[in-house]
Amino acid sequence: MSLAPRVVLVHRTTEYEELVARHGTHGQAAFFLTSRGRDIEEVAERGRRNRRALAEVTSAVPLTWRQARVERGDLDRFLFGPEDVVVVVGQDGLVANVAKYLSGQPVIGIDTDPGRNPGVLVRHRPRDTAALLASAHGGRAEELTMVEAVADDTQRLLALNEIYLGAVGHQTARYRLGLDEYGGAVESQASSGVLVGTGTGASGWLRSVWQGRGGELPLPRPTDERLIWFVREAWPSPVTGTSLVAGELDGDGRLSLTVESDRLIAFGDGMEGDAVELVWGQTVRVGVAAVRLRLLT
Predict the structure, then answer these.
(1) Rounded Cα–Cα distance for residues 145 and 159 (Å)
(2) pTM for the whole thing?
C-alpha cells in the first residue's frame, strides 16, 4: 500500500515571538520597544498575519493527506521523504533555506506579508494553497539552478542563492584559487572570501556585489545552468594576486579553492550554522549542482 502524500509546512519563528521569548511577556517586550521609540503593535500585527496564513494553509490540506510542520532552525534535523510536498510559509529567504535539504520534491512558496516581501520565491497567497496542492505533482513548475561545493573529503554543500567560502568571522582568508582542471590560471590570494551564486541569488547578495563591480558580467536567470563568482576585496602582496576576481561557470565548469589558512568554512544562503569546515591543504570545488529546486508557479 502506497503512502498518502505528506505536506511539510516550513515556517520560522516570528519577530514578535522572538521578542516575547527574550523579554518574558508581551508587556515587557512592549516596554523595551517603547523606551527606544518603537511600537510593538507593528511587530505584533506581522506575527498575527503569519499565524493567520499558517492556519489558512493548514486548513487547505486534504483530510486524507499527512501533515508535518518544521521550524527553520530544525531543518538540518528533519528528514524529508520523496512523497512530500513542501509548503514554505513566510519570506523568500525561507525557500532558499529549505532548498538544500530537498531532492526534487515540489515546493510551494506562500507569502505571509505581501508588499513587504519581494515575492521572488514566495509567489502565492494562502488562499491558493488548495489548488496548488491538487496539482503539486503535475502542475507547472520552474526548475531553479542550484550551486554545490564538494570538498576532497566528500563533504558536500548545496545552496539555492549562493555559497560563500572564507574565514570564520569574515576575516582574511588565504587560499589558492583556480580553474586548473580545465586549463585555466591558478593564483594565491588573500581576501574577504569568495562568493559563487545562481540566477536566483542574483536578486540578493550576489547582485549587490555585481553592482559594486560595475555590472560587467551578464547575470544568469534562475533557470540558467550558469553561475557567476566574485572574490571579495582581494589583497595584492608579493605572494598574493588580484587577477582572478570574477568570472562565470557553465554546467561543467568548476572553481577550485585550496586552503592556505588554518581553517576556512563554506556555507550556503546565509546559514553559517550549517557550514562545511575546511583545513589547511584541503581543496573544494564549486559548480552547478545536479539537483534543482522544483518551485511551483
Answers:
(1) 9
(2) 0.88
Say if CB 94 and CB 161 are below 8 A apart.
Answer: no
Closest alpha carbon to 192 in 180, 205, 179: 205
Q: Is the sign of the CA dihedral 44, 48, 50, 54 positive or negative? A: positive
Give the other-Cβ count within 10 Å of 144's Cβ.
23
Per residue in 269-295, pLDDT (tens digit) is 988 888 999 999 999 999 999 999 999
Task: Note the pLDDT of residue 4.
Answer: 83
Is beta strand 194-197 parallel, antiparallel or unpaired with respect to 227-231? Answer: antiparallel
| Cell 498575527 -> residue | 48
Q: State pLDDT tens for residues 55-86.
A: 999 999 999 999 999 999 999 899 999 999 99
State how far the Cα of 255 lies from the Cα of 164, in Å rounded to an integer.
Answer: 13
Name the DSSP letter for residue 203. Answer: G
Question: What does the alpha-carbon distance between residue 175 and residue 255 come to, in Å, rounded to a whole number?
Answer: 12
> Greater confidence, 45 or 179?
45
> Which long-range CB contacts under 8 A does 49-56 form with residues at least 24 apart?
49/112, 49/113, 50/11, 50/14, 50/89, 50/90, 50/112, 50/113, 52/126, 53/89, 53/110, 53/112, 53/126, 54/9, 54/11, 54/89, 54/112, 56/126, 56/127, 56/129
Residue type, position 220, single letter? P
3-state helix, strand, coil in the chain (%, to 5): 25, 30, 40
> Nearest 5°: phi and psi at 110?
-110, 120
Q: What angle do CA 21, 27, 28 make, to 5 degrees?
A: 60
pLDDT, tens digit (0-9, with 9 covering 90-100), for 157-174 = 999 999 999 998 778 999
